[in-house]
Every structure is written in C-alpha cells, then in structure tokens.
Amino acid sequence: MDRAALFDVDGTLVDSNPLHVVAWWEALRQSGHTVPTRAVHHAIGLPGEDLLEHLLGPDRDRSGDDRLSGAHDALYGTWFERLQAFDGAADLLRALARRGWKVVLVTSAKDRELEALRAAVDADDAITAAATSDDVEEGKPAPDPIEHALSLVGVAPDRAVFVGDSVWDMKAARRAGLATVGLLCGGIPRADLTEAGAEAVYDDVAGLLDGLDTGPFSTGPGEQGRTGTTGRR
What mean pLDDT is reported for the chain? Predict the structure, then answer.
C-alpha cells in the first residue's frame, strides 16, 4: 500500500519564519498596528486572513486586510532569491522517496511563494505533489489542507505522517487523523508542539534524517502505535 510523507514548508524545510515575522510586523506597523514580534511568530503558519484575525481580533476593520496582506507579500517577496533550505532538507525528501514514500508539500503559502520555496529546497525530483492555501476554503488548523493533500496522492490518513514546525500544523494533522512529527527549527518550543499533538519532536530536518531508521518513518504509519517518541534534543 502507498504511504505518504506530508511536509509543511515554511520553518520546516526552509528557514523563512523570521522573514515572515519581519514582513508581517512591518506590514502591520505601516497600517498603525503595534503587535509584538513574539505574537506574530506564534501566528506564522496560519493563512493570511486567519493570521490577521488571530493577531487583531474578529472585530477589526476588515477593509484593510487586503492592504496588509499585500504589504506582507511585497516585503517577503524581496527575499525570494535568498531563501535558504535547512541543512538536510533535500536529502530527507529524497531518502523518503527512495524508501517508497510519496512526498507531498502542504503549505499555507500562496502559489507564487511556493515556487520560491521549492526552488530553495531544490528537490522537485522527490516531490509527488503540493497543496497550497489557494486549494482549500479553510486553512490550518482545519484539517482541510491535509485532507486535500492526501486526496492528491490517494493515500489514507492512517498511511501518512505529517511533519511541521507550528502548533497549527500539529492541530491540523491530528484533526485529519495523521501521525505527527514536530520540528524545532521553526522556533516554536517543544512543549507547545507536544501540547498541540506532536508525537515525535526533532531539532530539525537533519535530525529527522539521522533518525529515519528508528523514528516515525522507520516502520510506516499505523505500525508504531502512537508512542509519543521524541527525537534529538
């Protein structure tokens, strides 16, 4: 039976979270909103509209949302050519593909952003499919993006593992019924990821790659029994 390895991209495969934080912080500042960078950081991983609601509340003047999102996109876009994948990202995806896993990217990034992220990872030969926030009506932490990604490759939830760096990733994957792996390289604390549902936690993709023979990908989803294993600390 087919197996799927689903990956978030920002903060998981690519070191882009700090850039998103700065871009959103500056976009908010330009519109007269004072939001601490720590709050912005914890909201990264949500689609733009949900991120603004999380930071500014549901009673905000929504007429400014498009301007805020546009300012973020313009600022973030200036770094596209300088985006850097984490060490081991391409090697990890290729290692899983060689082992028979269908590698699928699941991201809140828009299509144009995903192109830049994929260029940074430089492992398209290992990627079977990709799903973005443009493909679904509701983004993470709703399960919709995960379920859509699985439908692209025809794999059941109990035959898939999701890897991400945010609490929104963990919540979405758990709601979709997947085994979950959290990475610390996105800057979110281990305790937050575990509380949100991460069953295994690693420092980064290099740590996960080192643990392929003993971690969540060693036996396949549904076979290791949801043990709550943790990786490198």
Answer: 92
CATH for 17-78 (1.10.760, 1.10.150, 3.30.1380, 1.10.3470): 1.10.150
Q: What is the pLDDT of residues 156-190, one digit of tens each?
A: 999 999 999 999 999 999 999 999 999 999 999 99
Q: Per-residue pLDDT tens for 116-157?
A: 999 999 999 999 999 987 888 888 999 999 999 999 999 999
Q: How many helices (H) and strands (E) does the chain have?
A: 10, 6
The secondary structure of 11-71 as a DSSP string is TTTBS-HHHHHHHHHHHHHHTT----HHHHHHHBTB-HHHHHHHHH-TTS-GGGHHHHHHH
Superfamily of 3-15+84-210 according to CATH: HAD superfamily/HAD-like (3.40.50.1000)
**Signed CA dihedral, 43, 142, 132, 169: sign only:** positive
Domain parsing of the chain, residue ranges: 3-15+84-210, 17-78
pLDDT of residue 226: 41
Q: Please indicate whether the domains covering 3-15+84-210 and 17-78 agree at the CATH topology level.
A: no
Share of the chain above pLDDT 70, in %: 94
Q: What is the pTM of this model?
A: 0.92
Q: How many CB atoms lie within 10 A of CB 29?
A: 12
